[in-house]
Design a protein that fits this description.
Number of helices: 4
Strand order of the largest sheet: 1-2-3-4-5-7-6
Largest sheet: 7 strands, mixed
Helix content: 25-40%
Amino acid sequence: MLIREAAAADWPGIWAVMEPIVRAGKTYTFATDSTEGALRNAWLPAAPDAAPHDAVSPGRVPRTYVVTEETGGQSPPMIVATAQLHPNLPGAGSRIANASFMVHPDHEGKGYGRLLAHHVLNAAFADGYRGMVFNAVVEANTGAVHLWESLGFDIMATIPAAFDHPSLGPVGLHIMYKALGG
């Protein structure tokens, strides 16, 4: 297993992780019919100057990470999880990080999400972020809520009925926060 920054050539593997999660519509606010191109632009910026937030401070540029798993034989490692890290807001608000994480459904429960979370939190601290916020954690995504709470995130607020879950109907979205450093 290896965690590293993603490269443009990783997109097919990242898409293989993202597509079933986005299409299921249970944990992300992306439209379930989002195009691959739109999601690539959102998840894997071409370069720091193509970042979605302007006035990003040096050292705090958007980054995308992948977790790879050896498949054995001559096959290249397979991407099993991905994350992105970027400022939550531009300019004076850029000292707080935002991140998103996806683990392929076939690889859930193997610890990849936790390892990737530690990696991204350490990267955020090294980049000088003061904290990390998640703006929209689906309250029905109990695995994610448990993971983030176990890593020191607090639920700051829950917006009731803000997410249309495909089988549960309207459920809340948590805003979760963790301070970084001392």
